[in-house]
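Tutorial, part two.
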Amino acid sequence: MFRRRDFDLVTVSANLPDEAAGVMRILQQERASSRNLQFATDDTYGLQAAFEKKWEGGVPFTMVIAPGGRVIFQQQGEVDVIALRRVILANLENETYVGHPGYWAK
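Running the prediction step on this input gives:
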């Protein structure tokens, strides 16, 4: 949905460094094509706090960051994919959605 748009998806694995091979195996099984970063320290709480001070450490944690660093969406736990897509599309420059209006209605 976003491959031909001005949008980069980067996933961040909060696993410990010694679990990197397992993370990569799962990403390959899921055919993940996005860039993935992995924590390179055992201080997962410190790195999580660097993302968001209110993050209580639970995963999944989803954050959408606009150019310039503005957080436009964040949620801990399972995410509503349609709501997430709406936020992303609403914040892409030079984008207009032409389609069924009920799909995007709140």
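The chain has a mean pLDDT of 81. In part three we will examine how such features are distributed along the chain.
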